[in-house]
Write a structure and sequence with these properties.
The protein is mainly beta. It has one helix at residues 103-112, and strands at residues 2-5, 13-20, 23-32, 37-44, 49-55, 75-80, 96-101. It is 9% helix and 43% strand.
Amino acid sequence: MISIIPLTSTDASFKQTTALDGTNYVFVFRWNDRAQAWHFDLSTEDGTPIAMGIRVVVSWPLLRRCVSERRPPGELIAVDTTDQGDPLRSDLGTRVVLTYIDAESVAELRVGA
């Protein structure tokens, strides 16, 4: 199943807890003015870091290089709903949505590949 992770803050930096495959994860999103890009950190609910400083780019598995055994078992992918590219300051959660493909669906995709 593919689900959209709701991102409701309009702040340049915000934190939220989201359940992925039944486990809560903490996201901290930050807008970088110099790079004109969004980045996020991902940690366990108790604050153990999983991945830090990941740039939000569209159409790419954002946790591809994350080797932590604590990482979510599925895939996080930013999807541009209008084909304009990576999210600008006001685009995250609106024009560009963060999606999660659950572990079962990822396994099915790998079998079919």
